[in-house]
Structure formats: structure tokens, C-alpha cells
User: What shape does this take?
Amino acid sequence: MNFLQLLWVVSVALAAVSIVIMLALTVRRVTLMRQRRHDTKIRAELTPLILRYLDGDVALDVLREYTRGQGSELMGELVADLLYSVRGGDRENLIELLRRLGIIELHLSALQHRTATKRAAAIFGLSLVDDPPVLDRIRDLLGDPDPDVRLLAAQALSKHRAIGPVRVLVDKLQIGTVENSRVLRTIFRNLTRKHTDELVELLDDDVPAAAKILAIDALGRSGNFAVIDAISAMIAHDSEDVRVMTLRALAELEHPKALPTVMRGLDDEHAAVRATAATCAGRIGLTDTIPLLLKRLDDNSWWVRLRSAEALYKLGETGIKRLRDSASMSSEAARVAGLVLAEKESLA
Amino acid sequence: MTDPSAPAYAYLQAAAVLISAIIIALGFIQNLIYAVQLGIAYWALRHRPPVSKVQRLWGLYSDITMPISLLVPAYNEEVSVVSSVRSLLALHYPVFDIIVVNDGSQDGTLSALIEAFELRPIQRAYEQEVRHAPIRGIYGSPHHADLIVVDKENGGKSDALNAGINLSRRPLFCAMDADSIVESDALLRTVQPFLEDPDRVAAVGATIRVVNGCTVREGRVMELGLPKAMLPLFQIVEYLRAFLMARIAWSELRTLTLISGAFGLFRRQVAVAVGGFSHDTVGEDLELILKIHRYMLEHRADYLISYIPEPVCWTEVPTTLGELGRQRARWQRGALEAFFKHKRMLFNPRYGRVGMLGFGNILIVDVIGPPIELIGYFLIPALWALGLLSLAYFLAFLALAFIFGVFVSVSSLILEELELRRVPRPSDLLILTGTAVLENFGYRQINNFWRVVGWWQFLRGAKSW
Assistant: This one.
């Protein structure tokens, strides 16, 4: 058989095999749909039963009947869905139910599964459980070879404020080198209650800029004014992203002590930092920045001009008056001042 | 016919074999590309992270999402624009605004919007960072602070999107069609690559599905279904092949060169840096992605153009041959315009895999593929009938032009069923399997003819839609 004949034979064979597979999948679909209908029926039965169990009207054995065969998986899914929609005592009771039905044990054994997606699903199933042994098992996965699994583990642990030393987390997740997900922001924000000092220390540590950005962001949302000095010091950092986050964090804290940092930010060489500083000035209400904001109306970046004009408007009567004065002149500053005044007044 | 023993006949036969070999070789390379795409797409779908339910996504991402502007260019959309905007306002996403750009419509698009949302003129400070036709007015709604309607002179879809980019103040924008039907969790799903790798991702595309045959109410798909007519059915299989196989594969190889104009998420800063959407092409979606690749690679930036396989947007496909032919010729013209505009990227090592693989693919599948295949349809059977070619050549051509396509189309459906399972009923699967077989005997060939028409229009310098 020559190559041309082979092309014909292989094409016909592949076409035939693909059709046969598709027909087999269609048959499988019939079975799956039957299974899905059955699952829907069971779910409809189970949901009120679980709710009644929480009220003490149904015995555990009744629910246990449903966990035979493939039932544990369905029960696990259903309870997990319910867990996300209840709080407090009901959540505790649902977790206790998972424990009694052996579903937590199933998830724990799945943490060792060779497939990353299965390990990830198991973490998801356990993410609302705060038993120390469970948390210890999840903590082991901070060293998982799969970055998604590591991140999910960190997220689950941070929910329960059980993450351990922050520096270890930075190293294990390889923050700034391998891992850059914005989910890290949520994780770090959860650390502020127990790990404020460690987050402050991280600002001086030899870690990637990305880790410092996370720490600054988290500290900015801590509501703790004692961290302002530590955050403000980061305005001298080499990375403009760190400087931008410094100003964002100060804007979150809304404390006038940020003034010198904001002034410095308004004179930064990087436009994104200047624009963020302007927004920060307006948000905190730093009227002392008005002369610098007026200067920034002539900035070579549109975004700095816009944010400066918006900040002046936000600073109230004095800022608006100076904005109007600028608008009456003939310059780039006048154009942006006029535009922002017109915009704000048209929306008033 | 010439005497088979004459030397002229031998020359003729040699020429016939040579031409046929070229046509078959090209078909073989094309089909090889499809087979490789299938393999990569299957691997990628098997290894993607589990798809979360929307409530869980909200729980995961609601505090950390990036604000998005939805840019909705509208031209003569009086009938549907209000319900489209209403459904967009109801999307599940923490922070977003909608900028509808009325691109000089001749009908009552603007008045329908003004009336429905009680719009009134507002001012908005903006800088003309990318080029577009003059804006006549900007409108805001007292009831929906995040809805802005821009009325501008007609300039085409690219021009309208550019106006939207200028007015947007969000770090990301979503370019879409006014008649796209967007799933309520579309933004939450599509933004995921930006959240997972915020420093590198420049744009994200997602799967677009055919809405013909589905039940749509108030801009929402209420019930999935299949159309009765064959033409939209063929296009369903085509869309599966394009989105589920090709785009996933190219995205995995980091050489994705197209994000559909019906729905795509872009980093505003990057789009502005490349000058926004170009005016001199009807393939503005493809051209924008090529520009982004080119800009990033020339600036040695570490970047990603990602793709998510989940269907997030639905679109109505043409139902008549005339309409479909015009669309396909236009798409072909757009591909050629983009290709020749950026031809220096082709096989240029400076542009890495995009130049070698992405552009190589466009060259084979979009540039030289259609005319050569069309020539093959006529030439090879004729040469075989005249006795200038052996049966083996004829069968090989049939295999590559018709039979292998069955494998590719049915395999796309297999991927869908194994990994997404969005076809509602087993009977629908059977219908689509039949369609995936049938489309290779006539439909694909007509399509190829339309693409050659697109080639002809390109050579004549046609500019119209």
C-alpha cells in the first residue's frame, strides 16, 4: 500500500471510528440523563430532609440511607452547596453532618488523589471545615506540585486563619515568581487579624515586590492606623507597582497622616503613581495638596490630569473654586478643569 | 486525447501528477494541523481546573475582580437594543459599566434608548487616545449610573468600539456585538485568566455558541434547542470546530490569533498602545489580536492571550445562503487584510511561535488553502477521468477533502460531549452527528467557494461590509 492509498484507508477508518464513538457517547448520554433525573429527584427529597435534620425533626439514619453507593458524592455536593448559603449554627451542624456521614473522610482521602483536579475538588469540599486535623492535612498541600492546588489550600486555610507563618506561605506558593493570582489578595487580607506584625516585617524582607504589594494591600484594609508609617515608607520602593499600592492602601485607611507620602507620590516620576496619589488626596480630603494638584492639571499624562481635576472637585468648596479658576484660563489645565467641572455638574 | 505513448503525453502526465501532489500535500498539511489541534484541545480540556458554579465564583472573586466596561456598538438596532441593554444591566459582576455606542444609526436606535432608560445629555471628560468619528452627544440615565450612551457619526464597528475605549475608564473592556446574547456569569468566567495572571494577560476570548433554535426571552437564553433548518445546523458544527478545537489548541500553544468580535475581554492599556481597532479592515477582531502580538513581541513583553472553553455568549447565525455567503466572503477578506498588513511576521523568528505557527496556520488555512482546494475539486477528478492520474491520487484527494473532515467534525462533537456536555438531548446529539458527517459533502465546499469570492474581493480592493 502506497502513501496515497494509506491516506484513504486511514481517513475512512478515523471517520468510521469517530462516528462509532459518538454513537456510543449518545447511548451513554441516555444513561447519564436517567442518572441525572434520579439525582434531581434525590436532591429534591434530600434538601428538605437535611433542613429538617438541622431542626432536629429527622434522624441521622434517614439521611445515612441516601449515602449508599454513589450517594455519598451527591450528599457531599448538596451539603457543600447548602454550606455556602447558611451561616453560624446551621453551618456548624451541616459540617457535623458531613463528619457523621463519613463524607469528610472521603474528601480527606481524595486529598491524596493522583489527579490535581480531584485534590482541588477535595479541598473545595473541605474548605469550610475548621477541624485542626483537617486543616493540618490541607496545610500539607501547600507543598503540592500543582500551583492551583497550592493556592486553593492556602485559600482554605486563610478562611480559618490557620495559615501559619506568612514568610513560609510566600516561599511555598512562590509568590512573585510562580504564583501571581489576585486570589492571593483575599488570602493576605484574611491574615491581617492574626499576622499584622508579620505582614509589616514582610515589607522589609528580601521577598519579591509582588509579596510586598500583597502585604501593603492587606494592611491597607486592616483599619489599623498603627501600620501607616510602615506602609508610607514603601513610597521609596523601586517598583512603581509597590508605590501605587502604597497610595491605594493609604487611601483605604483614609488618615490625614498620609499627607507627606501623597505629596511625594504627586511628584513621582511614574504617571500611574501620580494619578493614584491624586485619587488618594481626593479620597482622604487632603486640602494641603491643592497647589500640587493644580500643578498636575498640566501633567503630560491624561490620567494624572483627570484624576487631579477629580480630586480637586472632591476636596469641596476650595478645590472647586481653584478648579473653576483654572478652567477660565487657556491651557491644557483649563481644558481638563472645564471638562471635569462640566461632567460633575451635568451629573449633579 | 494525445497518444499515451507520445512524449507530450508523458509530460502532461508528469505535470498532472506534480499539480495533484501539490494539492494533496497542502490538503495533508491542513488536515494534519486539524489533527494536532484536536489532540491539544483534548489534552487542554482534560487538564483544565474544575468549573465552579457561579455562586462559588462570586465567593472566590467578588472582592478581587477588575472593573470592566462593556462596549456595545449599535447600528440600526432599534428593535433589539433595549432588551439587549436590559439583559446586560442584569449581568452578575461586581463592578462594570455599559457604554452603548450608537454608530450613526439611520433608524430609531438612539430614541429607543433615550425613551427606555430616560436618558438625558451629560458631559464626560475623555481623551482621544484612539481615533474615531466625531461624537454628537453623550447620555446618562438617572436610574442606571453605570449606563452611558454615546451618539456619534457613522464610522463602522471599529470606529464605534474606539469611541467606547476612549470613554471607558476601567482597566478592562469587553468588546461585543449589540445582538450578542451574553450569559449572566459571562464576565465572571471570562475575567478569570486576568485574575489568575494579572500582570501578563492582555486579552481573553471565550466560546461563542449559535442561538438559532434556542428559546430566547428578554435577551436571555431560556431553553437550549437545535434549529430545524440545515444551514444553521451546519454552522453549529462549524462553531464547535472553530471554538472547541482550534481556539483552545492555539491558546494552549500561545499562538491564538483570533478573539471573536462577538465577545472578547481586553486590557484597555494594551488596546490603546496598539492604536485600538483598525479602520482599514473588515476583520478588525483578528487584526487587533495580531497587533497586540506584534506590539508585545516587538517590546519583548511577557504576555498571554488566553481563551476559556466555557460558552459565555450566543449569536444568531445567517439562515440564507446569500447572507452566509456575504458573511464568509467578508471574513475571508478580513483574514487576508490582516495577514498582508502584518505579513512581515510570517516565519519571522523575531515573532516566535506566533510568526511561525500562528501565521503559518493563517497562510495555509486562510491564504493559500481556499483557492488551491477549489482548484483541486475540479482538476483532480478531471485529470483522473482523463486517465492522467491513477485512482490512488483521486482517492487520496477525496480522503483529504471530504472523509478526513468527517473525523474532524465528529471529533469536535466528541470533545463537546466528553468535556462540556451542553447539547441538551441525546436526540440532538444524533442530529449533530449526522450534520457533522453531512457538512463535509457540499457545505464545506460551498464555504470554500465563498472564501475564494472573498479572495477575489480582496484583490479588487473591496471595502464594504
In short: The CA atoms of residues 29 and 35 of chain A lie 9 Å apart. The mean pLDDT of chain A is 92. Chain A touches chain B through 50 residues (CB under 8 Å).
